[in-house]
Amino acid sequence: MSRQHIPVRAKNIVLIGFMGVGKTTIGKMVADKLYRDFIDVDIEIERRYNKTIPEIFAQHGEGYFREIERNTVIDICDNKQCNIVSLGGGAFKQEAIREKCLDSCLVLFLDLSWDHWKERMDLLIENRPVLHNKSVDEVQEIFDERQAIYAEHNARVTTDNLNPEEVADYIVEILKLGWELHQPLS
Ligand code: S3P
């Protein structure tokens, strides 16, 4: 796939990472701080298909969800610029999504350690079909497997011991530094 030539300041900022690391909360904050629009891909899918994510999984299965997830992400990448976009935690399993995002956007990996993540697990299960009927060990297996797909990113942000506001401030800082370095305003 050929590289798209999008000026660095215009590229969408894509947040990746495991379920519940704070992609939506932090993404919204980053968007507010930069006066940009925010898109949560799961919310966008629910809006476009008029069903919740658990309903889509229950009625059509994960395969169908992954197909519409892929189409939605590619559509956003092709038609939006300057947006802050949070991806579902499993989106980067798909090569087409990884390639598209790495080709046309800046991809930031929100990295939370397993020890910190597992404290949040009970709060996350209800709306995450991927976690249903799984033991803690099984979830840890998925968590560990997913680290390989998240390894494909432009920058990693370690979020252990930081609150969402601190993570958002840090992201804004590194974005501004990167923009200035690659596309100075003066
Ligand atoms: C999924 C993560 C969810 C959602 C779907 C599948 C996954 O998004 O896309 O339930 O496979 O990790 P969040 O990461 O926003 O919870």
Automatic annotation (TrEMBL):
InterPro entries in the record, alphabetically? P-loop_NTPase (IPR027417), Shikimate/glucono_kinase (IPR031322), Shikimate_kinase/TSH1 (IPR000623), Shikimate_kinase_CS (IPR023000)
Q: Has keyword Metal-binding?
A: yes
- Designated gene of the protein: aroK
Catalyzed reactions: shikimate + ATP = 3-phosphoshikimate + ADP + H(+)
Please give the function described in this protein's UniProt entry. Catalyzes the specific phosphorylation of the 3-hydroxyl group of shikimic acid using ATP as a cosubstrate.
Q: At which positions is ATP bound?
A: G20, V21, G22, K23, T24, T25, R128
What assembly does the database describe for this protein?
Answer: Monomer.
What EC identifiers does the entry list? 2.7.1.71
- Cofactor: binding details: Binds 1 Mg(2+) ion per subunit.
Q: What EC class does the entry list?
A: transferase
Give the subcellular location. Cytoplasm
Query: Which pathway, metabolic or otherwise, does it act in?
Result: Metabolic intermediate biosynthesis; chorismate biosynthesis; chorismate from D-erythrose 4-phosphate and phosphoenolpyruvate: step 5/7
Name the source's superkingdom: Bacteria
Transmembrane residues, as ranges? none
Give the keywords, sorted: Amino-acid biosynthesis, Aromatic amino acid biosynthesis, ATP-binding, Cytoplasm, Kinase, Magnesium, Metal-binding, Nucleotide-binding, Transferase
Q: Name one GO molecular function term.
A: kinase activity
Q: What is this protein called?
A: Shikimate kinase
Q: Which family does it belong to?
A: Belongs to the shikimate kinase family.
Residues holding Mg(2+): T24
Q: Where does substrate bind?
A: D42, R66, G89, R146
